[in-house]
Write a structure and sequence with these properties.
The chain is an all-alpha fold. It has one domain.
């Protein structure tokens, strides 16, 4: 165990508290017939994983990122949020998109637990790119339409961009390469603040951007 009792630990704790707040808010929305919907469940799953991932990092340190279980479950963050956006704004595509994300998660698990490094280098970026692009594109499109959300909903896309940068940087490092100036030291230095900024962007976008 490598308990984080430093700046990163504090930032991850704040991230977890924000995730708890979001889980509570989505639970309240689900209780209201006017705001209830399957998308609230998807969003709650995403923030629950943010909470659990943050706690695991606080308890075990950054070494937890190398754990197969953590790496696979972390995929639920973009996968569930992306599926929630599709379910909320493009409901007729929800089921096929959900199956696509499930297939991606299964393939990533097979690659991680089977030690299939080359296979993982293919499936991991493909499915994470699909989910990431969804999280960025859907808020932009619905904001442009303007009939379902306020402009603040665009912050959800910002959250998608932030976590996408962090994910890409980690993926490059794992492959033994470096993305732009994101060296190992730089990635470890910015990862915790990046997770907090991502969560705050999602919080503002989902709470302030959706029209009641």
């Amino acid at each position: 165990m490598n308990l984080m009792l430093n700046f990163d630990g504090l930032i991850l704790l704040l991230t977890g508290l924000t995730a708890i707040y979001m889980i509570y808010r989505f639970m309240e929305r689900q209780k209201n017939p006017d705001t209830a919907g399957i998308w609230n469940i998807y969003y709650m799953i995403g923030f629950l994983v943010i909470l659990v991932a943050g706690l695991l990092l606080i308890i075990f340190g950054w070494g937890a990122l190398a754990n197969n279980f953590v790496a696979v479950v972390a995929g639920l963050i973009p996968f569930s949020l992306a599926t929630g956006l599709i379910a909320q704004f493009y409901p007729k595509y929800e089921k096929p998109y959900l199956w696509l994300m499930i297939i991606g998660l299964v393939l990533i698990a097979i690659a991680r637990y089977g030690g299939m490094v080359s296979f993982g280098k293919i499936v991991y970026p493909i499915f994470h790119a699909i989910a990431g692009l969804t999280i960025v594109a859907v808020p932009v499109l619905v904001c442009k339409a303007g009939d379902k959300v306020k402009n603040g909903f665009g912050l959800v896309a910002v959250g998608g961009i932030l976590i996408g940068l962090g994910g890409m940087a980690l993926a490059f490092l794992k492959a033994g390469k470096q993305l732009l100036f994101f060296s190992s030291d730089v990635v470890m230095m910015i990862l915790a603040p990046l997770l907090l900024l991502m969560t705050l962007a999602y919080t503002y976008g989902f709470m302030k951007g959706v029209k009641k």
